[in-house]
Design goal:
Helix content is 29%, strand content 25%. The protein is an alpha/beta fold. The strands form 6 sheets. A 4-stranded mixed β-sheet has the order 2-15-17-16. A 4-stranded mixed β-sheet has the order 4-5-3-14, with helices on one face. The two termini are 26 Å apart.
């Protein structure tokens, strides 16, 4: 789908409740299925990715019902799944794929995982290798989907150092370790988002952490829960960036997740002299808060490898903000961007250059010189089917006085189906 983007510059004012956190919504269905009893997850994100997770569990015999804002999962426990009559279609969801490979690694029946063209190009070896060490029998197609999973009734404990900073790989191995024959230890290179660990504890499980090392004991006695999913900080980031970059803007975002592993974008924008306040904070199984954002003049900064895990999904927005900041911003240590829904380093560079940005592609990042007015050097923009790129380009278009057309605009359905409607609802 192509759409014409709103001509800017404009200002944003008002309040917007961003949808539920995508990472937590995925895990709510997974833990709800693994637990005994009923789980109710409110403020659930009904995006294409999360619907892929729901669809997979329904094929495995789990009863899941939904209304406009929540899902209810009737848990079957670790041993209550039924053989799927069809392939498990992951759509575009890397989270669904990698986590379910670990969660389903010890099932007494075979399965086949498939996905769309984009997902079928994303690397799966990073999760298949350690799962194979644990005794899972999985056959990939040149390291990618489709993946055939053989029936399996035994998993060995593992002591494993993750070679990449990946919450998806870590989470897959946590799910597998819960079903192993002894305690497992996972050690990260850098701290990554800890939603799986938090939700495991919420459902009555136990996981021990010391520094970057996690110790997981076998445990399959989880209990269903009722809880509210925080607003997704990665979705909130687009409103934060837009309100920061558009003069005379002031936006309030209630109930945004403020997990320490997910607030990297807030910290980066703060260092760039953004104006972001937490005006109401709340604690729970995940910390949340209400954010108040005002427009601000930004300064360039250096983004280094140790900062990347906490802003991996927001880096396209960081690049956009850098085009409007004073000075030269460098992003390094971000090679992981090349194996996302698109090669986000190449795609961000190409699309922002179309708008006149001074941006240089590097093997593991970008160099951006600002501030540069964005305008219709080439009015044909393209998300390349990547939801984060589509949303970033929408924000970029609001900064320009020119009219743009965005190809593959419907990619936002992966994580935020109502994004355009919500963002334009704040325009005045």
């Amino acid at each position: 789908m192509a759409m014409k983007l709103t001509k800017g510059p404009v200002q944003l004012n008002g309040t917007c409740q961003v949808p539920g956190d995508k990472s937590i919504s995925h895990r709510a269905v997974m833990f709800g299925a693994l637990a005994k009893g009923r789980t109710v997850a409110r403020h659930f994100l009904f995006s294409a990715d999360c619907l892929a997770t729901i669809g997979a569990f329904e094929k495995l015999g789990v009863t899941i019902s939904r209304d406009e804002t929540s899902v209810t999962i009737e848990g079957v426990g670790f041993h209550g799944f039924k053989p799927a009559k069809q392939s498990l279609d992951m759509g575009n969801s890397g989270t669904s794929t990698r986590l379910l490979l670990g969660l389903l690694a010890k099932q007494p029946f075979p399965m086949r995982f498939i996905g769309d063209a984009s997902l079928s190009q994303r690397p799966m070896g990073r999760v298949l290798a350690p799962l194979t060490q644990m005794g899972a029998q999985m056959t990939a197609t040149a390291g990618h989907l489709p993946i055939e999973v053989a029936s399996n009734t035994h998993l060995q404990a593992i002591d494993y150092q993750l070679p990449v900073a990946s919450a998806q790989v870590k989470s897959a191995l946590i799910f597998a370790a819960l079903q192993a024959d002894g305690p497992s230890t996972l050690t990260e290179k850098l701290a990554t988002r800890d939603h799986t660990e938090r939700m495991l504890r919420l459902f009555g499980g136990d996981i021990q952490q010391k520094g970057l090392a996690l110790k997981i004991k076998p445990q399959t006695n989880l209990t269903g829960q009722t809880f509210t999913i925080p607003g997704d900080p990665s979705s909130a980031a687009f409103f934060i960036a837009a309100a920061t970059l558009l003069p005379n803007s002031e936006v309030i975002l209630p109930n945004v997740g403020l997990n320490q592993t997910r607030i990297g974008f807030l910290e980066v924008l703060g260092q760039m002299q953004g104006d972001i306040q937490v005006i109401q904070a709340d604690s729970g199984f995940e910390p949340t808060g209400t954010l108040k954002i005002k427009s601000a003049s930004l300064q360039a900064m250096h983004i280094t490898a140790d900062m990347i895990p906490s802003i991996i999904d927001e880096l396209p927005l960081v690049a956009l903000c850098a085009t409007q900041a004073e000075g030269v911003t460098t992003i390094s240590g971000a090679a992981e961007l090349r194996v996302k829904e698109t090669d986000r380093i190449a795609t961000v560079t190409a699309e922002l250059r179309k708008m006149g940005a001074h941006i240089e592609e590097k093997p593991d990042g970008m160099v951006i010189t600002g501030p540069t007015p964005l305008h219709a050097v080439n009015a044909q923009l393209d998300s390349h089917g990547d939801h984060r790129i589509a949303m970033m380009l929408m924000v970029a278009a609001l900064l320009s006085k020119d009219q743009f057309t965005l190809e593959n605009a419907d990619a936002v359905a992966v994580s935020y189906p109502k994004f355009y409607e919500d963002l334009l609802g704040l325009v005045n």
